[in-house]
Amino acid sequence: MKIIGLDVGTKTIGIAVSDPFGWTAQGVETHRRKKGKENEDVQRIVDLVEEEGAEQIVVGLPKNMNGTIGPSGELCQAFAESLKEATGLPVILWDERLTTAAAEKTLISADVSRKKRKNVIDKMAAVFILQGYLDSRS
């Protein structure tokens, strides 16, 4: 069963997809969001769900270090609800604390330039979110 993983931000959405067995996550793209055009963002994910034949979506939920949910978390919850309505698929909210930091550390250790890191950091964070979810199921 293929699963799509998302790192939803205000400017971009990092997107990852699992292999058909649900073992590994691979980065797909970083979708640039347009202010006031949330329907286009949802439609891009709907299109990807159809292209990939995904049966589930995992959305990273940024929590504060004390476990509370702030404005970014509320944005992700609303986006997840929109995806659930648009696709009819199960949408899981997954604790994403420190995934962007982990992705950045991985890219730095791989000696990826600052300019290139900026272009792939959200996609890499989506991979970390999805892989964390996949690993928790086994």
TrEMBL record:
It comes from the Bacteria. Keywords: Cytoplasm, Hydrolase, Nuclease, Ribosome biogenesis. Its EC number is 3.1.-.-. Residues 1-103 form the YqgF/RNase H-like domain. GO terms for biological process: rRNA 5'-end processing. GO terms for molecular function: hydrolase activity, acting on ester bonds; nuclease activity. The keyword Isomerase does not apply. It is found in: Cytoplasm. InterPro entries: RNaseH-like_sf (IPR012337), YqgF (IPR005227), YqgF/RNaseH-like_dom (IPR006641), YqgF/RNaseH-like_dom_sf (IPR037027). SUPFAM superfamilies: Ribonuclease H-like. It is an enzyme of class 3 (hydrolase). Pfam families: RuvX. One of its GO terms (cellular component) is cytosol. Belongs to the YqgF HJR family. Could be a nuclease involved in processing of the 5'-end of pre-16S rRNA. HAMAP family: Nuclease_YqgF. This is Putative pre-16S rRNA nuclease. It comes from Bacillus selenitireducens (strain ATCC 700615 / DSM 15326 / MLS10).
